[in-house]
Amino acid sequence: METKKGMTTMEKLHWGLEAYKALRKPLFRLISDMLNAIKIKNLKADLTFGLPDPADTGMLCGLIHALLGTVYSRCRSCSFAVCPVFMESLLDFRGNAEIRIKIYSLIFPFIKFIFNGKTLSFTYSIVKEKLRGSSKINS
Q1: Does the reported pTM lie above 0.85?
Q2: C-alpha distance from residue 27 to each of 30, 98, 101 (Å)
Q3: Which of 13, 21, 36, 44 has the largest count of CB atoms under 10 Å?
């Protein structure tokens, strides 16, 4: 009787790709619903940073400002100060936040995710494959 210690890299890659294909939309929906359940009351942050390459510092600054645009759309009482330093490598962050999460508003998105047809179908395929694999080992 041969025992199997774990999955090979190809099996992990296969199941990872299958999980991505099957659960991409339900998982993004779950994340979106959870973010909607989080209410940002107040957020203040000061960020001073610099990277060894000034071009990288500029690109990171642009990315941070793009991300802050989405945060500003969700929180009107937020304030950020982003100060890029192009002459030296450093990171200094100071922040203060007040958020509200209602636990009951997180339960329904999880239930929707768990009982989603794609999630159930993928879970069934994993269980079926594992049972098929264990019956081959016992034979």
Answers
A1: no
A2: 5, 26, 20
A3: 44
